Amino acid sequence: MVFIENNLNFTVKEGDIGIYHINSMDFYNILQDISSNKLIIDIRDQDSFTQGHVRCAVNIHPPTHYSANELQKFNMAKYIGENVTAKHWNLIFNRIILYSDKPFFYNTDDLSHASMDTIPNVQPLSLLDWDESFLNHMVSRKKKINVIYVYQGGYDSFYKEYPFMCGKSKISFADLYPSEIIKNFLYLGGKENAEVLVQLKNLKITHIVNMAIELEDYYPHQFKYYRANLEDRYYANIHQHFLPIIDFIEDAKKVNGRVLVHCAMGISRSASVVIAYLMKTMQLTYVESLKFTKAKRSMINPNQGFVKQLKAFDLELLNLKKQKIIDDNNSNSKNNTQESLEKQNEKDQQEQKVDKVKDNTNNSNQDEKLLQDINNTNNLILDDSTSKEEKLLKDINNNNNINKDEKDANDANDANDANDANDANDANDANKHPISLL
């Protein structure tokens, strides 16, 4: 059965085959893994391979030199056998890495049913389908191999990220780089990685954690070191270094640095603190961190004493996590209570404002009524006063008229009396002096 996976932790059962889609970092780490034999096959054209290729790769290029008739009866097994390194690929190697100059496109159903019956040795070949045909043949002819890694990025993409892993046909143990645990940041390796300056420069390392008591700090003036001075013994206290090393690595992250953690072989001491770092910073359990690290560097194997201390650290982190949940719940409860009080106070204040507005409205209405009453009273007073004034004026006028009439009557009487007096005087005078008729 064929499994197509992106997860390198997925384990393929015996008799089945797994096709893993890998990224550039996975490809890089597989190149450093010496735990099992592997064959890297570049299926680009010959000219492209000659210009540059991944280290240790063999080139099985498209048969462009074949005639049209030869392609109609193409024997894939015979063609692959012409390459000495790849001749017995399905008997010698248990892992195959394929890459081209572009992503692979294939039919999943065809791969699932690929066998010697469905894909015979001799059949027509289209050069346009070279990648797919080659992959189908590898799946159908599996014997010892049960894993095929398919790099979908294309050679140029890998070269852009890891140019120092390209171009050489041969490789020695000293050329193995440290494993990349976290992309462009955290690396795990051994003595050879710590002492080869060109590797440290290529990986742009800035900080180094040296876990080995037997190894010196090779470049103390060029890199920032944390030195543990620890033996690879089950009784060694590695736990005391967990938090200080985690802080050291986090400090490197803050300045965009890159960290190499190493011991002698990159198997036990350095692997243990990397696992502890992942547990703390990625919120992983011990088992999850172990699997995560093993997928990047399959050879890791912390000693039993370190495993015991890692599990104790796992329990500590779990208790801290539980306590944080309790504290957060208490804090949330307190905040909720405070928030409820604040909301109630806000509600009370709002109600008070509403009441005040109502009071002001009522007072305003009362004030308007009072003003209206005052105005009405003033109008009544004014009207009454006006009436009284008018009456008084009328009375005064009437009195004046009466007095005038009385004065006129008196004046008339006085005039009559004066006339009567004059007449009397005249009569008296006549009596005293009679008029002569002569």
UniProtKB/TrEMBL annotation:
The keyword Hydrolase applies. PROSITE patterns: RHODANESE_3, TYR_PHOSPHATASE_1, TYR_PHOSPHATASE_2, TYR_PHOSPHATASE_DUAL. Residues 327-372, 397-438 are annotated as: Disordered. GO terms for molecular function: MAP kinase tyrosine phosphatase activity; MAP kinase tyrosine/serine/threonine phosphatase activity; protein serine/threonine phosphatase activity; protein tyrosine/threonine phosphatase activity. Residues 177-319 form the Tyrosine-protein phosphatase domain. Keywords: Hydrolase, Protein phosphatase. The keyword Transmembrane helix does not apply. GO terms for biological process: negative regulation of MAPK cascade. Residues 34-74 form the Rhodanese domain. CDD domains: DSP. Signal peptide: none annotated. Residues 340-359 have a biased composition (Basic and acidic residues). It catalyses: O-phospho-L-seryl-[protein] + H2O = L-seryl-[protein] + phosphate; O-phospho-L-threonyl-[protein] + H2O = L-threonyl-[protein] + phosphate. Residues 412-428 have a biased composition (Low complexity). It comes from the Eukaryota. InterPro entries: Dual-sp_phosphatase_cat-dom, Prot-tyrosine_phosphatase-like, Rhodanese-like_dom, Rhodanese-like_dom_sf, Tyr_Pase_AS, Tyr_Pase_dom, TYR_PHOSPHATASE_DUAL_dom. GO terms for cellular component: cytoplasm. Residues 240-297 form the Tyrosine specific protein phosphatases domain. Belongs to the protein-tyrosine phosphatase family. Non-receptor class dual specificity subfamily. This is Protein-serine/threonine phosphatase.
